[in-house]
Amino acid sequence: MQTPHGPDRGFWQQRFERQQTPWDRGSAGPQIARWISDGTLAPGLRIAVPGCGSGHDALAMAQAGCVVTAIDYADAAVALTRQRLAAAGATAEVVPADVLAWQPALPLDAVYEQTCWCALHPDHWQAYSQRLHHWLRPGGRLLMLAMQCLRPGAAEGRIEGPPYHMDIQMLRALLPAPQWSWPAPPYERVPHPAGWTELALVLTKTA
Ligand SMILES: C[S@@+](CC[C@H](N)C(=O)[O-])C[C@H]1O[C@@H](n2cnc3c(N)ncnc32)[C@H](O)[C@@H]1O
């Protein structure tokens, strides 16, 4: 259900059960192939995929040789991801957990953040941005696809989602220098099947 602080676990579980998953591309996000070809995603890279959904992205990274930990708190998402990996003969850790509580045993090399942040109500963004920072080792990288879905209601102060619009200025405030090194814009705009776009950028944890 939708609570005053956004969707809960049951909301997402129901979406999967009713097959109402318009965010699901049916294949890995296109930015993954670009990041594989330029070496950003490389064999041996220890990477988390928070809010992994049905697991297309986790599978693509596992097949590229990354050491993947996929996290989701909807049982259906966990089951779909495990099935997808097994069907492909690929290996990844799939963890049923809340991304606002989960912590890796060892700091990670990278996080692939795509449509998990925008699935969280803004009330959770400060906590989530702090978790992302804690998950990574110094020098670790946040591979981000920042959902751009500004709605007219924002002009009246309405907070509408999911997905919630990921304003670039808000991201700078929650992932600030000098804790993070930001690339210079413009950022690549990746079309999303739901009609929005995502900004692709790689941030480095500096401190
Ligand atoms: C919009 S879907 C995106 C799924 C996947 N990244 C994709 O693009 O296909 C958001 C996913 O995040 C998961 N999710 C939302 N909030 C979560 C939380 N607090 N902890 C763990 N998973 C969460 C949902 O269960 C859902 O699978």
Task: Briefly say what this structure is.
The chain has 207 residues and is an alpha/beta fold.
Could you walk me through the main structural features you see in this protein, from its secondary elements to its overall organization?
The termini are far apart. The relative contact order is 0.15. 28% of the residues lie in helices and 26% in strands. It contains six helices and ten strands; from the N terminus they run E-E-H-H-E-H-E-H-E-E-H-E-H-E-E-E. With 207 residues, it is an alpha/beta fold. The protein binds S-adenosylmethionine. S-adenosylmethionine binds next to strand 4.
SS elements, strand count: 10
- Our Rg estimate from Cα atoms comes to 16 Å
Which of globular, elongated, flat, extended, rod-shaped describes the shape? globular
Q: Largest sheet at a glance? A: 8 strands, mixed
Low-confidence runs of at least 5 consecutive residues: none
The small-molecule ligands in this entry are: S-adenosylmethionine
The chain-level structural class is: alpha/beta
Beta fraction:
25-35%
Number of helical segments with 4 or more residues:
6
Straight-line distance between termini:
38 Å
> Percentage of helical residues?
25-40%
